[in-house]
Amino acid sequence: MTSKTYTHDNQLPNLPIPSLNDSIERYKQSVDPLLNDEERKNLAKRLDDFLNSSEATKLQSLLMERSEKEFREGRNWLEQWWLQFAYLMWPDPISLTSNFYVVFDEKAAPIGQPQLKQAAKFTILLHRYKKLLDAGEITPEQLSKNPLSMHHYQKIFTTTRIPGKDADTLLTCDPGDYIVVICRRQHWVLNLSYSDGTPLTCREIELQMNKISEWSQEKHPHHSVGSLTAGDRRAWASAYDELMQHNMNQHNFGIIQRAMFVIALDDHSPQSDDEVGYHCLGGDASNRFFDKVIVGIVFRNGRIGANGEHSPLDAPITGAAVHFVAANISSMMDDDSMSSDSTSHREVDPKRLNWYFSPEVKVKIEEADAAYQIRWKDLDLKFLRTKTFSQKWARKYKLSADAVVQMAMQLAYASLNNGAGCATYETGHTRLFYHGRTETIHSFSNQVKTWTSSMLNSSTSTHFQLENFKKALSHHIHQSKMCIQGQGFDRHLLGISIIARENGIEIPGKIFQDENWKRNNYYRISSSNMAKFPFFLGGFGPAVFDGYGMCYWINGDDITVSITSWHSAKETSSEAMRDAMEMAFRRIKNLVEESQLPTSKL
């Protein structure tokens, strides 16, 4: 890895392991606002007993040894565990919950553009991004002039998730110079270059897309492997094993797994961002392949989005590749040029993948699709777009824009739940370190609890509300910085619990199995900041049944928030949360402006 893109990766320090005392103390602070006095006192004693035990010393020592060993072998101590325990071991469907989606802003992909031309442009641009990445010409990312790990960029075009009986696996391979296009439940191979290596032009790819669209009308299959990727992972694994008994199916899966990415030509024409988001996070499962890192989705009316598989890399990594497309597609000039004659065009005609489905597999496909349809129809997705809050406004009052959004979420949730708060996940990253991925920022705190209580109490003075607001912001900013510096507690304590299990060591007090631990990890708000991508929006599903998935884009003059929940959960409503968020931003704006906080010169 001598290219510019990865130039800093091998120089990054190992992912730290915090002191056990610090991590236990941070856990205690995090769970504190969720406990009553008796629970708090009981937990404090058990945590102290654990820290003073020989087991604690032993486990920390074992974890340090693992860290040194893994680093010598080209990994950090967490990455394999995180992949297994956070993703691959879970049997639940990845569609709608683990996978994420993006929607191109209508300025980037307006309604009315020809579907197949848009699909061709998407293909050309994403292929161009891959070439830049392969050549090492993607500029390494930095945080305050400190290099960030670019390691996971290598997985964008090379990795596919494979279902397994006990756990899924990731297959990494050098991709072929082609993509797979899904149209009307049929899979097609679309080559991106001629046999002499000459790349197809945008017009030539559009012509191939047109053939796929026309030829897909000749057959009307009732079953598709896409439905299986949307279902329970263990049921999918069973069907996969059966399918792989047939040589033709083996060939087809190999083709899909080596494809650079997948394009889904969708016959629906969603209009609003809410509708496009609903079809990109979900959509017709028979016309998707949820196990690929990128499935670009182009609708009949020209709207565009994508669906991403989460396990090998995080949304900002995939987002960078797809955002390259979104940022350039509207300005890309129509190209009617042809690089070869009509005879050569037949050389690259798309090839249909024909499948063999036994009666047993057909039943499994139908069962998976039926279960998925119930879940998809239950999805409640809404966008909030408002100019009430923006990056420009936050900068004017010298406030952390991200922290303000997190406070708005807390106030909105409390206003909908009689003042109660909830465990909240915000994605923090650890990319300052070797192969770093994420850490949990716990947004709900005693400081937040005090502030939201004061905001919901009409007799509380503005001065008191403002002082509480400042303290809540300050605490959140500190927590965020600690996570970025590798001093969060979630991943560390996960490592302690895993290494105890692997070595047959019983943790005193079973502190990682009790109700306090479960409560602190039951995220009724799961959130993430995607502010660096102005040309699209998107998000993910809720982490728990009675919770919300909230992803936000803080722009110069406005903010967009993707809000998801489940219709069948009586405790939640995406529309109610959207309205409560708007009101929370207004209340915060009024609080800050009426208090005359010092402003910066703009």
Entry keywords:
602 residues; alpha+beta; 8-stranded mixed β-sheet; 6-stranded mixed β-sheet; 18 strands; 44% helix
Q: How does this model look, in words?
A:
This protein is an alpha+beta fold and 602 residues long. The protein has helices at 20-31, 37-51, 54-72, 79-88, 115-134, 202-215, 225-229, 233-243, 247-258, 273-281, 315-328, 342-347, 359-378, 391-396, 401-416, 446-455, 462-484, 490-502, 515-520, 574-594; strands at 100-104, 142-143, 146-147, 159-162, 169-172, 178-183, 186-191, 262-266, 294-299, 304-308, 351-353, 379-386, 424-429, 438-442, 525-529, 536-540, 548-554, 559-566. The protein is built from 20 helices and 18 strands. The strands form four sheets. Strands 11-7-6-8-9-10-1-16 form an eight-stranded mixed β-sheet, with helices on both faces. It has a six-stranded mixed β-sheet with strand order 12-18-17-15-13-14, with helices on both faces. Strands 2-3 form a two-stranded antiparallel ribbon. A hairpin with a 2-residue loop joins β2 (142-143) and β3. The two termini are 42 Å apart.
Q: How many beta-strand segments?
A: 18
Helix/strand/pairing category: alpha+beta
Distance between the termini: 42 Å
- Could you tell me the radius of gyration in angstroms? 25 Å
Helix content: 40-55%
As laid out across the biggest beta sheet, the strand order is 11-7-6-8-9-10-1-16
